[in-house]
Amino acid sequence: MRFLRRHAAVYVGAVIALVTLSPLILLATDAQAAGWGEIHRVLFRSRSAMLLRHTVVLAVLVAVLSAAVGVAAAWATERTRLPLRWLWTVLLVLPLAMPDFVVGWAWHLIDPRINPLGGATLVMVLGTYPLVYLPVAAALRRSDPVLEDTAHGLGVGRLATFWRVSLPQLTPALFGGTVLVVLTVISEYGAFEILRYPTFTTEVFTEFQFEPEAAGALSMPLVLLGLLVLGADGLLSRRDGGMATGVRRPPEPPRWRPAAVPAMLALLGLAGLGVGVPVGTLVYWIRQSRATTLPPVATLGQATWSTLEYSAGGALLAVVLATPVALMTLRRHTRTRDVLERSTFVTQAVPGVVIALSLVYFATRFAYSVYQTSTLLVVAYALLFFPLALVCVRASCAQAPPELADVGVSLGRHPVTVFFRVTVPLIAPGLVAGFCLVFLTAITELTATLVLAPIGVETLATQFWAYQSEVANGAAAPYALVIVAMAVLPGTLLGLWFDRESRTPRRPKPVSA
Amino acid sequence: MTRRTAVTHRRVTTLGMSVLAAVLVGSLAACGGSAKGSTATGSGSSLRGQTIVLYSAQHPQTTDAMVAAFEQQTGIHVRIDANDEDVLTAQLEKEGSRSPADVFYTENSNWLQQLADRGMLAKVDSGTLAQVPKADSAADGDWVGVSARISAMIYNPKKISEAQLPKSIMDMADPRYKGKIEIAPAETDFWPIVASVDRAKGSAATLAWLKGLRANAGSNDNVPDNETLTSDVSQGITDFAVINHYYYYRLKAVVSGGTGNAKLAYFAPHDPGFVKAISGAAVLKSSKHQAAAQELLNFMTSKSGQEVLEAGESFEYPVKPGIPANPALPPISSYEPNAFSPADLGTGLQAKDLLQRAGLI
After folding, report:
1. Which stretch, A149-153, A341-345, B229-233, B239-243, has highest mean pLDDT?
2. What average pLDDT does chain B have?
3. To bridge B106 with a disulfide, which of A405, A469, B85, B208 should be the other Cys (CB 3.0-4.6 Å)?
4. DSSP state of A200
């Protein structure tokens, strides 16, 4: 009994990890059911080579550019004396609230002849650089500028200081962010479909439509690619960046000066391209003719409501699942616990359509009553975005001293009571941030929603997609605009949370430790 | 049709209920069970108030008007699940005998034939089959033809003159059209055309032709659907493309003052690219509302059902003799397509195989 209780956290974590990994197991079963002959036929042909090349080339391009933009933006907000820093932080985080398929659509409308690779690169860089910006900015805040000052004092130039002093400290954060960028690129569907840049994910989606068995086979390279990226991340992030800890020199107060103008213009331009241009295009098309021979169907209100419902459900479930896993590694680091926690990130490497397919497979065989119900969609969101929830909850957990919970228990409170009265309030900001992040990501999700939305229900994303597929641009635009409007609020909250979170000083380490 | 045109209508559920969708499925099943006893033969009155589920891959422009007229005439409610025909076919195969679908309505007949070959379709009432020409339905009565569509070229006269257009679809693969065409291989409307070329020229020539098309289309060899082809030609992004005739007429109906810059042209008479394809419907064997489902098929092929095609914005041709097409269209008798029937199209698997071997899908 005692043994059980001591390891309860691990068991709960293991079960949740297993649940988040179940899509991959199902996928393997599904692919196996298709038979090796089918797998071989679909996978080993020249088209696959082309798709692989497309996917890798784009992933590398976007990773490099996003990393550069993200680091530059982080440097601007954290190491310069830019006024209105909170505003820039929010503006830089906001592209997360822009669905890539809407941004891709907007650029396609602006220039229908846009080069597929160029367009795809542009859209993905604009959409993913915040994934680098956030961790790098956080790392910059944690690291002590004194090191850089010292290098300066010793006569090292600005650029050299950056390369030799700052960058090594940022490596783990930069690498982690870039991994997320790569994973996002390989799992994107909508933007590439519109911009006519076929990748493995667009192919899986097309294949799913007329040959579901083949889709399972085609998903395997994607999963492998994702695992490869995650594996590389695991190997590299073990190298500690040697972050300076302890007391930091306080950041210098912001100041208005002419030198800040170019930096502010650059940041404004970035936000303009990523948010302003797409929103402007949407507004333009709403004002254009809405004529279409398509009958008007799911109204904006209905679609908004179902979107809200499913996204909130998925966000709630993801946060609830993430909390025990985050707490598990908080108390003690063992190999088992770390591996368990790490394994849950695997779903991040798998495109939404793959998760959706595995759930369809599961439901049609083992749980027909939930097939084509909203339950399945909510579960899909929770599984897909579990890692996002985990990241946020874990960040807060790291700041909640576990000793406080111990004190509660030693004072005779039941551990459950302690959990709700001590732990939850302490990690509440992380729970809210996790909810916001999953919520806004779910609102802007397209592929899993297309596959799993219940009969007779349209979400904003599916209705937008239906109209844009019929080239009914004026009719599609309002749905996209509502998606953006809905995602902006949690996006802004997230930006402000981040601005606050990384500024509050970390809990000092106990001296004796 | 497009990749996933998930426009779904006529929801019987209220939004609040969607949370309890599991409950909904249960109640539908119960509803199906209770209706079972009353389904005798197609007498209208006993079916009134029943609800059937229609999996529709047809354009909502067609389906909506058809279903509205049917509901009004029979009092049978129809719940529509709209999606692409390949998706719905895959879905039906996954669902098997537990499928909630009663009727399946597709844009092209090969998907119905695929289900028929797997024994998933019930025989269509002979009275319904008798309402349309025999050649437009399945030979063994597994599905019935509802409307016809004609393949055509849409071109932009500012970029290419009618005289410069190919006379045969085979010439589209000629290097002189390099960079002048776009193709939509994943568009299921393209498959009957591939099947027709295959039947006329054999698979080796068809494969070479597809590879030629791919080379000519360049990076535009993966346009998602015919709607996009139509829009691209009218915007002058490309010179011409192969579509079905109604996309052009719908564009004309939407764009006030004509079709922008687009015009329609046909291949030479009896060319393998000049194809009449059939859109049809069938009753699922697993349907628990056989009588009501047969009633819908009966209506779609009846005079009132076929007249819906004449009046609305569907722009497809009625198959029932004596029903005129939409007045904006030339009479169907004016076309000279090649002799290609739904029987020649079969399940379309040969076309899919060729497209895959050409690396297009």
Report:
1. B239-243
2. 86
3. B85
4. H
- Residue B45's pLDDT is 60
- C-alpha–C-alpha distance, residues B310 and B327, integer Å: 7
**Of the partner residues A193, A209, A374, the one whose CB lies closest to the CB of residue B84:** A209
- SS3 for A55? helix
Chain A nearest-CA residue for B7: A466
Q: Nearest Cβ partner of B22 from A196, A305, A370? A: A370
Catalogue the E-assigned strands of B216-287: 240-244, 263-265, 276-284
| CA distance to partner chain B, nearest, from residue A317 (Å) | 15
Contact B18, A457 (CB under 8 A): yes
Please give the CATH topology (third level) of the domain spanning B149-275+350-358: D-Maltodextrin-Binding Protein; domain 2 (3.40.190)
Q: How many domains does chain A have?
A: 2
How distant is the Cα of A160 from the closest Cα of chain B, in angstroms? 43
In chain B, residues 256-285 whose CB comes closer than 8 Å to chain A: 256
User: Which of the two residues, B361 and B256, has the higher pLDDT score?
Assistant: B361
Of A201, A221, A241, which residue constitutes the final position of a domain?
A: A241
Which two three-digit tokens encode residue A146? Answer: 């004194």
Q: B45 to chain A nearest CA, in Å? A: 27
Predicted confidence (pLDDT) at residue B20 exceeds the cutoff of 60: no
Question: Which pLDDT belongs to residue A489?
Answer: 87
Quote the CA–CA distance of B38 and A175 in Å, as a whole number.
66
CATH number of the domain enclosing A24? 1.10.3720.10
Considering the domain architecture, whether residues A55 and A162 belong to the same structural domain is answered as yes
DSSP for A286-336 reads HHS----SSPP-S-HHHHHHHHHHHHHHHHHHHHHHHHHHHHHHHH---HH
Q: Which residues of B are annotated as a binding site?
A: 59, 107, 246-247
CB-based contact B5 A469, cutoff 8 Å: yes
Class for the domain spanning B51-147+278-329: alpha beta
Residues of B with CB below 8 A from A196's CB?
219-220, 222-223
Instruction: State which residues form the domain around A183.
Output: 35-241
B168 touches A: beta carbon within 8 Å: no
The predicted model gives B235-262 an average pLDDT of 83
Does the structure show a pLDDT above 90 at B141?
yes
Q: Which residue of B has its CA nearest to A209?
A: B87
- Here the tokens at position B120 are 């998933």
> Least CA distance to B235: which residue of chain A?
A112
Q: Which pLDDT belongs to residue A495? A: 82
Mean pLDDT, rounded, for B55-76? 90
Count of A–B CB contacts within 8 Å? Answer: 144
Residue labelled with tokens 């269509």: B124
Chain A residues with CB-CB distance to B25 below 8 A? 369, 371-373
Tell me which chain A residues have a C-beta less than 8 angstroms from the C-beta of B3: 193, 205-206, 209, 469
Q: What percentage of chain B has pLDDT greater than the value 70? A: 86
Chain B residue whose CA is closest to A203: B361
Residue-wise pLDDT for B195-225, tens only, equals 999 999 999 999 999 999 999 999 899 898 9
Give the residues of chain A that fall short of pLDDT 50.
1, 239-244, 506-513
- The owner of tokens 């795809």 is A120
Residue of chain B with shortest Cα separation from A290: B254
Total-model pTM: 0.83
Our CA-based measurement puts residue A248 at a distance from the nearest CA of chain B, in whole angstroms, of 51
Which token pair is A18? 């297993």
Per-residue model confidence (pLDDT) at position A250: 64
pLDDT at B7: 35
Predicted local confidence at residue A40, as pLDDT: 80
Quick check: A295 and B222 CB within 8 A?
A: no
Is A471 in contact with B230 (CB distance < 8 Å)? yes
Which residues of B make up each annotated binding site for Fe cation? 59, 107, 246-247
SS3 B148: strand
Report CA-CA distances (Å) from A79 to A130, A140, A197.
17, 8, 38
CB contact under 8 A, A373 and B12: no
